[in-house]
Amino acid sequence: MAYRLILYGLCKDPVAHHVVAELVAAVTAADGAARYRPAGPGIGWTHGTLTADRPDAVAQRPTRPVHPEVDTRPDLLRSVAATYRDHPIGSRLVGLNVSAAITLSGEPVDWHLVRALWSAVQESWLTIIPRDEVEGFDVPLDGLT
User: Fold this and answer.
1) With bands split at pLDDT 50, 70 and 90, how would you rate the model's confidence at 57?
2) Which long-range contacts link 115-119 to residues 24+ away (Cβ below 8 Å)?
């Protein structure tokens, strides 16, 4: 089963392929084994696959890829803000200009890549609001730093 973490945020340059390029540059600088393969851009969004050629220390088999997707379409972000307008965090979603979904599928997860991607988002975005289907807006991300 896949796990999907969505990060809503505010960034300086809300152009999807620019956001991905900045995040991928930071990830590959932090993790020399990281490789990014774009899967295709659309208008206002892009996605791809982050991988690293390394075995998991416990499972002794290759780690699974991490799938980031970036979306900067204003209509999507306005829709998210409208959906959660009555939620306590709703007012913080107004005016955000980027969302990034990080999908993890299968075991073992490459936590080095996940941490590098999380650090890249923390360094480059001005605001970050995480959400997932399990914890909602109370996602505990402290263990990723």
Assistant:
1) low
2) 115/144, 115/145, 116/26, 116/27, 116/30, 116/31, 116/34, 117/23, 117/27, 117/50, 117/66, 117/68, 118/144, 118/145, 119/26, 119/30, 119/145
